[in-house]
Amino acid sequence: MTLNTLSKYPSRRTYVLKVRGDALPDALAGRLENLVTGQQLEFASGRELLEAIAAELEAGRNGTAAKE
After folding, report:
1. Is 10 among the domain residues?
2. Rounded to whole angstroms, how far apart are CA atoms 40 and 34?
3. pLDDT class for 63, splitting at 50, 70, 90?
4. What pLDDT was estimated at residue 68?
5. What is the domain range of residue 45?
6. Structural domains in the chain (count)
7. Mean of the pLDDT values across residues 35-39?
8. Would residue 23 count as lying in a domain?
9. 57 to each of 12, 23, 24, 25, 43, how far by Cα in Å?
10. What mean pLDDT is reported for the chain?
């Protein structure tokens, strides 16, 4: 049996999600921060939050940093 030495949850994909104090369920807003790179991405809707996460994943796959 071969053990997988790669983490299922790598540190480079560790984030802090900060939701603004005035955010509402239908008006989500805040900031997503990557704990390893320090990259901060602002979002003004749930859709923008998901797009920010997708951009981070794509940048990691391509070996580049996501755009601010």
Report:
1. no
2. 7
3. low
4. 42
5. 15-62
6. 1
7. 90
8. yes
9. 10, 25, 26, 25, 16
10. 86
Q: What 8-state DSSP symbol labels residue 55? A: H
Is residue 36 situated within a structural domain? yes
Examine residue 52 and state whether it is found in any structural domain, yes or no: yes
Q: Quickly list H helices, the chain.
A: 46-62
What is the rounded CA–CA span in Å between residue 43 and residue 31?
A: 6
Contact 17, 35 (CB under 8 A): no
* 34 and 56 Cβ atoms separated by less than 8 Å: yes
Percentage, residues of the chain above pLDDT 90:
53
Query: For 39-62, what is each residue's pLDDT tens digit?
Result: 899 999 999 999 999 988 888 777
Strands (DSSP E) found in the chain:
15-19, 30-34, 40-43
